[in-house]
Design brief:
The protein is of the alpha/beta class. It has a single domain, classed as Uracil-DNA Glycosylase, subunit E (3-Layer(aba) Sandwich). The chain contains nine helices and six strands; from the N terminus they run H-H-E-E-H-H-E-H-E-H-H-E-E-H-H. Strands 1-3-2-4-6-5 form a six-stranded mixed sheet. Strand 5 and strand 6 form a beta hairpin. The longest helix has 18 residues. The structure holds uracil and iron/sulfur cluster (SF4). Iron/sulfur cluster binds next to helix 2 and helix 5. Uracil binds next to helix 4.
Length: 184
């Protein structure tokens, strides 16, 4: 087994936090491990938990659409989450759950070594970039950290609930397109 498959095995059998109890399937993430672009959401929802795949519900359909609008395909990128198991009733992940899970994500990012990491929503932004960053002020603006470019984006689920955020999410994707066109 290679490093990536070993990591997958660790995640799908993990019991490091309380979220293990309520899950049907841990969601490791999926896509191209040779990609330059990674999207990181918050955690699996109901459909993701059921299928063991990231962003396959309503928010996922919008994410796919946004990816396609900038000329990419879902299979060209990698899609993952901060926590790999579903928080019950889609509540926010707790700080101790994020802490327990984040080394898996760091290992995934180290393995893929992407040029751009797009954070989807507040939890992803706060975990991966900085807890004090305001998404409403900083979305769509690239931040350099530890030799990587992070691009804070709105969460597609937020854009489904609040129509006015859809244009902002589209703007965030346009910024990603620009970064990729200039080689990041
Ligand atoms: N929302 C997320 O943050 N992640 C998913 O995988 C699905 C919905
Ligand atoms: Fe393990 Fe992460 Fe699932 Fe918690 S959320 S049980 S740390 S894989």
């Amino acid at each position: 087994m290679n490093v990536w498959e070993e990591l997958r095995e660790k995640v799908v059998t993990c019991n490091k936090c309380a979220l293990a109890e309520g899950r049907t399937n841990a969601v490791f993430g999926e896509g191209d491990v040779n990609t330059q672009v990674v999207f990181i959401g918050e955690g699996p929802g109901q459909e993701e938990d059921r299928q063991g795949r990231p962003f396959v519900g309503a928010a996922g359909k919008l994410l796919d659409k946004m990816i396609e609008e900038i000329g990419l395909k879902r299979s060209d990128v990698f899609i993952g989450n901060i926590v790999k198991c579903r928080p019950p009733g889609n509540r926010d992940p707790k700080p101790e759950e994020i802490d327990a899970c984040k080394d898996y994500l760091f290992a995934q990012i180290a393995f893929i070594n992407p040029k751009v990491i797009c954070t989807l929503g507040r939890h992803s932004l706060h975990t991966l970039v900085h807890p004090d960053i305001s998404i409403s002020k900083e979305h769509g603006r690239a931040v350099n950290k530890m030799g990587k470019v992070f691009l804070p984006m709105y969460h597609p689920a937020a854009a489904l609930y609040r129509r006015e955020l859809l244009d902002k999410l589209r703007y965030d994707f346009e910024q990603l397109k620009r970064l990729l066109e200039r080689g990041v």
